[in-house]
Amino acid sequence: MRVRTWFILPLLALILAVAGCGRPKVVTLSSPAGTFDPIRMETTDVAVVLRAIARQDDEGALIEDPGWREYIMEIKNLGTDLLTVQNVKLLNQDGRYVDSASGYEQITAPPTVGGELASDVVGTAAGMAATQFVPCGGTLFGLLSNATKASSAGSKAKAKRDFMLRVLKNVELAPAGKVEGSAFLPNIPNPRALVVNYAQGGKTNRVEVPLPSEAPEDPEDPDPS
Question: What is the tens place of the pLDDT at every residue in 112-127?
Fold first, then answer.
């Protein structure tokens, strides 16, 4: 009896998808100092937790150019008034505030800082890997569509929508409200802090989250002994 191809291919894909759900997927995330525990800063108004820093090609990251990093964080309103997360920036070693991306198109090309390219740090600040486990889920269609993400116009449109849902700019939080989102920032060497600008009760303020220092690599001496 002849078995039709249109039946075999979806069945094979379904079998592979189920087999893949036998264990959780691993999301590889980079950080300036390699693996780090979530960093929390809290004021009377707001609590900020930096959970991870993702780079290009890390699973789940939206960035398309290696010159960007995705700072994944949670922000909670601890006050009694509405709080607006206005923006998230980086503070560099010279004391300059570097702005985050406002649109998806920005993270598909090399970033600029002060008119100059903020190129990816090659060979020294690539960082070590931190891992985060996420549950296996989604539909077969979702799994199959991820395989053609780079070439699909529909996927590009979805990435733009995901960016707008994820980006932390002008996000309003009711008292006790919280948001999980991302700031897309240039990959500059050794940033001093992540800075969250917010407004509450007619006043503007900011909270700084200190960042771990980059651990220099020494390829000439892999064994210190």
Answer: 865 555 544 333 233 3
